[in-house]
Amino acid sequence: MTWAHNSTVAVAMSGGVDSSAVAALLCEQGYHVVGLTLQLWNQRRLAGHEGMPESVQGRCCSIDDVYDARRVAETLGIPYYVVNQEERFEHDVVRPFVDEYLSGRTPIPCSLCNNHLKFDQLLFTARQIGADLLATGHYARNQFDERSGRWILKRPADRGKDQTYFLFGLTQEQLSRTLFPLGEMRKPEVREEAKRAGLRLFEKPDSQEICFIPGGDYKQFLDAYLEEQGEQVPDTAGELVTSTGEVVGTHHGIHNFTVGQRKGLGVATGSPLYVLEIRGDKRQVVVGGGDELYSCTLRAKRVNWIALDDLRGPMRVQAKIRHRHEPAGAVVEKTGDSEVLLTFDEPQRAITPGQAVVFYDGDVVVGGGWIA
Question: How far apart, in whole angstroms, are the C-alpha atoms of residue 190 and residue 136?
Fold first, then answer.
C-alpha cells in the first residue's frame, strides 16, 4: 500500500532530534503534517521525596521536551497538540512496572508503553484530527509483503540505533498506518536534516533514561511511588540460597535484585556471586558463579506474531533477550496459546524473566513475547 504525499500525517513529537527531523522531512515531501505529543508523566510529581532529585530536567517526555516540540512545530509552521494521557500511562505502564518489580521480575516500561499506549492512543488521536497516518522517530522499517499478505517490521539501516526490540507488540493495523521515515537513515544524517531545516535542537543529546525514573534508580522510585500512594513496600525479605539449596545469607526484599546482578548481594565469598534466579513465591534469591548464569532455553508468553499469522511448527530464528543483546541462533516452537519454547544453539547469559525476547529472520521481526 502506498500513500499520496498530500496525505495528512500525525507526527509523534517527543521534543528530540529524531521526531523533529521526521516532521521536517515529511513537510518537505508535501505531506500535511500535524504534531502530537503525549503528556505521560508529571515530572515534578515525586520530586522532593526521600532519595528523589528536586530537578527532573533533561529526561524523555519532560516539560523541556514539550517546549522543544512546540518550538519545532512553530518553526515548521504546523499545527501542534499535547494529548494528556497521564492517567492511562500510570495504569498501563507505571503500576505494572511497580508490581512486576515487587514480584521479583524485571519489566521493560518502554515496550509496555509502545505496546499498550503510544501507538494505540496516537493512532486514535490521529483519526480524530483527520490524519491518515502516524509517523514516529523510531529507527525501524515497515512494508507490506505481497507474498504473505502481511505488514512486516524490519531492522533499520543504522543497526546501532535499531529500536525494533521495543516494537515487537505492534499489530497489523498499527503497522499499516505507521511511517518510520528514519528507517533508511543514520543518526548523523538525521542531525544534518534537522540542522538544514533550521531546527535549533539539531545537536540535542539523546535521552537514555526511563521517563519516570531519574538516574535509573528503580529502588528509590519504588519507595517514593509507594509512599505517595499510601502503601508500604511489601515485606519480601528472605534467604539468599545457592542453586543446590544451601542458605548463604539473607536479603531485605526481592525487588532489590535482578538476574545477573553482582553488586549489593551482601555476601562475602572467595569467588564472585551473581543473582541466578528470583523465587518470588518463596522470597528466595538464588546466587551462584558466573558460569551458572548461562542457559540454553527460555519460555515466553503473550507472544505477538508480525511476519506470521501463527507459528505452525518449529522455526529457526535469531533471538534477542535484551535491547543490546546480539541476536543469537535458536529454534522457537509453540507450546500453547501465545506461548513458546525457545532453544538457543549456544547458552545465553542472564536470561531475565519480565524482559522481552524478540525473534528475527535476518532483518525481519518474526514476533516477540515476554520471558516467563
Answer: 13
Residue with cell 534537522: 194
Q: What does the pLDDT read at residue 2?
A: 53
27 annotated active-site: no
Q: Please give the pLDDT value at position 269.
A: 77
- Phi first, then psi, for residue 248 (nearest 5°) are -120, 0
Catalytic, out of 60, 61, 110, 211? 211
Q: Which residues have C-beta within 8 Å of that of residue 329, sequence separation ≥ 6?
A: 316, 317, 318, 344, 345, 346
DSSP 54: S
pLDDT digits (tens, 9 = 90+) for 70-103: 999 999 999 999 999 999 999 999 999 999 999 9
Q: Which residues of the chain have pLDDT under 50?
A: 1, 58
CB atoms within 10 A of CB 222: 19
Q: Which of 27, 60, 113, 296 is catalytic?
A: 113
Q: Which domains does the chain have, with CATH numbers?
A: 8-137+181-216 (3.40.50.620), 236-288 (2.30.30.280), 293-371 (2.40.30.10)
Q: Is 110 considered catalytic here?
A: no
